[in-house]
Amino acid sequence: MMRIRQVLLDQRSELEERVKKTRIVEREFLPFLDEMRKSKLMKVTTGVRRSGKSFSTYLMLRGLNFGYANFDEQILLSVSPDEILSALLEIYGREMDAIFLDEVQNLHGWELFVNKLERTGYNVFITGSNAKLLSRELATHLTGRHLQLEIYPFSFREYLRSIGFDENVETTRGMSLIKHELNNYLEKGGFPEVVVEEENPRIYLRQLYRDIIEKDVIMRYNIAYRTTFREIALTLMGNFGRYVTYNSIKRQFGLRSDHTAKNYLSYISESYLIFFINKFSFKPKEVERSPKKVYCIDPGMIRAVAMREDLGSMMENIVAVELLRRRSYWSRDMEVYYWKDYQQHEVDFVLKKGTEIRQLIQVTYASSRNEVERRELDSLLRAGELLNCRNLIVITWDYEDEESMGNRDIKFVPLWRWLLRPEIE
User: Fold this and answer.
1) How large is the angle between the packed helices 246-253 and 258-270, nearest 10 degrees?
2) Is 123 part of any domain?
3) Residue 221 lies in a domain
4) What is the C-alpha separation between 41 and 146, in angstroms, rounded?
5) Residue 202, CB half-sphere, CA atoms under 13 Å: how many?
6) Is residue 178 part of a domain?
7) Pairing mode of beta strands 98-102, 66-70
8) Using CA atoms, how far apart are residues 332 and 206, in angstroms rounded to an integer?
9) How far apart are CA 95 and CA 85, in angstroms?
10) Residue-wise over 200-218: b if at least 16 C-beta within 10 A, else e?
11) What is the pLDDT of residues 173-215, one digit of tens each?
């Protein structure tokens, strides 16, 4: 017990020291944190490693006498949860009114422990880096008794706030400088320690990638063919913005079945490192069977690990992540798809709310109207007619205008300007 007590004390000290040294950047989800803090329900914060989950949860706990345990520490996984609770009580006494469990998915049977804490009357805060594991257990054991926030690395807006960017973007100077910063964002990405603490992005992000693959996937799922799995993960990183199927992964890497390929891709997705967007269809079976498009959680991670520098694809990846971020923070009922017909017309993103298609988005690296391919516009117009949507947008690098084509209007918006507006139009 003495050893466990010391580990918990050291963890709390390390957390507070880290917070003390960190320059606070106002994150866009702070209003939701305030809402969570006031609630008596369990607070759950999820997201990729090092995206700010622990720091944000600590902000919610200010003013409370809380106990803290981080389950990234192996020794805490070798003792019973009751021993951990006893050690926390020994440290903080009867006045401990909240408990913060960090990376709780590492603890076997964590949901039973959390349930017990809640029944005992504790105000419980948990973080985790595994999407499916947490959501499955929360749905099974804590239905309706928790609030959940999914955190992403810095958006471009948060990145600009962190560097103190205050130029007037409607001036020639402001537009030039914001495009310069967008290039920096494409290079470094949005992980807080890269942006705020100015860690070397290549070194830091490569190590973070290895930690996610090794700790959050290979060790967690006890994957037998580790070399093959690492090759699959690296291939997905290098193929962002492209199509992938379970069968293509099975054939390329000599896996035994589509089921194994599906599991491997699911494991990587659950770590928040990579995510997949489905093809839009009114038929659920077609959605499931169709190829998926793969994206990475952070542009800096792509540059550091995959070292692919296709700017058009990088733009598309940033838009994909931003759409999921907006869904998590402000539009939780929004669904994101891509669209493709049998003639290979394609639209990068379809935004759906309820039964309504709200917006169609095409992304292209274009700095003038004549650089926008006719096929991209034809696909957008065709999808607009078939899906009964009039809100059509082309996100460009540096071209802005509005144009009537057929019976629809198309807005051309530079990526930097689109990223500055968090709302879905």
Assistant:
1) 110
2) yes
3) no
4) 5
5) 1
6) no
7) parallel
8) 31
9) 14
10) ebbebbeebbeebbebbbb
11) 999 999 999 999 999 999 999 999 999 999 999 999 999 999 9
Instruction: Give the phi and the psi of residue 279 in degrees, each rounded to 5.
Output: -75, 140
Query: What does the pLDDT read at residue 11?
Result: 97
- Nearest one of 303, 296, 304, 347 to 324, comparing CA atoms: 296
Does residue 189 come out as left (phi exceeding 0), alpha (psi in the -120 to 50 range) or beta? left
Instruction: Tell me the β-bridge partners of 356.
Output: 353
* H or E, element range at 377: helix 374-386
Residues of the chain predicted below pLDDT 70: 1, 132-137, 139-144, 423-425
Q: What's the pTM?
A: 0.94
Between the CA atoms of 319, 324, 327 and 328, what dihedral angle is there, to the nearest 10 degrees? -140
E strand or H helix that includes residue 261: helix 258-270
In a domain? residue 183? no
The two three-digit tokens of residue 337, written as one number: 């798809």
* Other C-beta atoms lying within 10 Å of the C-beta of residue 331: 17
Q: Domain count for the chain, please give it.
A: 2
Q: Which of 317, 351, 340 is CA-nearest to residue 241?
A: 317
Which residue segment(s) compose the domain that 416 sits in? 321-425
Q: Is 103 left (phi over 0), alpha (psi -120 to 50) or beta?
A: left
Q: What is the DSSP letter of 116?
A: H
315 class by beta-carbon count within 10 Å (0-12 exposed, 13-18 middle, 19+ buried) = buried
Bridge partners of residue 296, in order along the sequence: 274
Q: Which residues contact 127 (CB under 8 A, 6 or more apart)?
A: 44, 45, 46, 53, 54, 57, 101, 102, 103, 104
